[in-house]
Design goal:
The chain is α/β, with parallel strands linked by helices. Helices cover 45% and strands 15% of the residues. It has 14 helices and 13 strands. α11 crosses α14.
């Protein structure tokens, strides 16, 4: 067992998002198992009192320590989750409490590093911990974060961002990616990989990867469009022009374009490119095919076309994507 215990504190308060609270401890619990306790991490849930806390999911959670008790220890990592409110128009807004903000500021002063989970970035910002730093949060509240805290450089796209000793993560399942990144920083990529395998995850999505995946799964409402999508997926390496698709669907080219716009919110060309990128992603993750082979089998024909499509869709090259996501059965 490690001679130095790493004290990890997760904030707990009424209305907090449940997964933000429970996700990171799962990662650290698996870290303990994968290292035979050599990591020496002790994860505790800290709240203002020892009373049960009701999360946004309605699940009641018991704290391990109070905020005051946590301040008596040297904190290795302070994890700050968040909470939101939703109005009658389903608009999401992050909520903060001044008393909680004061505790965040106090606890952060005892911590080696601080990390927010999802909309927890709003608490860090309110505590002044993000001033002059680049930060991310859940895409739905990023405009609010930027408007309320102009001293923060808000980037709504990445999965997580590290700026000095402060980390910020997107939501909601990105809490696992952020936690794996913390593990990798402290204990190395090999250990993080073992933990990721237990979670049935990739080692990590890179911090720079977009919160938004390729838009290949919009919901269609007609059988005709479902058939078109299946046809495209099964023939990504074929010549797929608007005329070809219109003939397959037995509609005019103009009507086909209107169908894509109204059903999927995109153009036929954009959707086809997304489908081809999705097919290429799968081959890059699971095969040793050369880029020439991937381009040919996924309808891009040339590596240059493949690279341009990946940059448009994923802001990465096929080689970068394979390096990050390659896995074997």
């Amino acid at each position: 067992m490690s001679s130095v215990e790493r004290f990890v504190v997760v904030l707990l308060f009424d209305g907090v998002d449940l997964l933000d609270v429970t996700g990171p401890p799962e990662v650290f619990a698996l870290l303990r198992r994968e290292t035979d306790d050599a990591a020496g991490c002790r994860v505790v849930l800290a709240a203002e009192t020892m009373d049960p806390v009701t999360t946004a999911a309605g699940v009641r959670v018991l704290p391990d320590v109070t905020f005051a008790e946590a301040t008596r220890r040297t904190i290795d990592t302070l994890l700050v989750p968040g909470a939101v409110e939703v109005d009658e128009r389903r608009r999401v807004r992050a909520v903060t409490d001044e008393g909680l903000v004061r505790w965040v500021r106090t606890l952060a002063g005892r911590a080696r590093r601080v990390a927010s989970v999802c909309v927890g970035a709003h608490l860090l910002a309110a505590a002044g911990l993000l001033d002059g730093r680049r930060a991310t949060t859940h895409w739905s509240t990023a405009p609010q974060l930027a408007a309320e805290h102009p001293a923060v450089e808000v980037d709504a796209d990445p999965i997580f961002i590290r700026d000095g000793k402060v980390w910020t993560g997107a939501g909601i399942t990105a809490c696992l990616d952020l936690s794996l990144a913390l593990v990798a920083e402290d204990f190395g990529e090999a250990v993080a990989l073992r933990v990721a395998r237990q979670l049935v995850m990739y080692l990590k999505r890179p911090g720079g990867q977009s919160q938004f995946s390729v838009p290949i799964e919009p919901v269609s409402t007609t059988r005709r469009m479902d058939d078109l999508r299946r046809h495209i997926a099964q023939h990504v390496n074929s010549r797929l022009t608007v005329a070809d698709l219109a003939a397959h669907a037995h509609v005019s080219e103009r009507q086909l374009t209107r169908l894509f716009r109204t059903e999927l919110g995109t153009t036929p060309a954009s959707y086809i490119e997304s489908a081809r990128v999705e097919a290429a992603r799968s081959r890059l993750e699971t095969t040793d095919d050369t880029l020439d082979r991937v381009a040919a089998t996924c309808g891009f024909h040339t590596v240059d076309t493949l690279i341009r499509a990946f940059r448009r869709q994923l802001d990465a090259t096929p080689t970068e994507y394979r390096r990050r996501f390659r896995h074997t059965a």
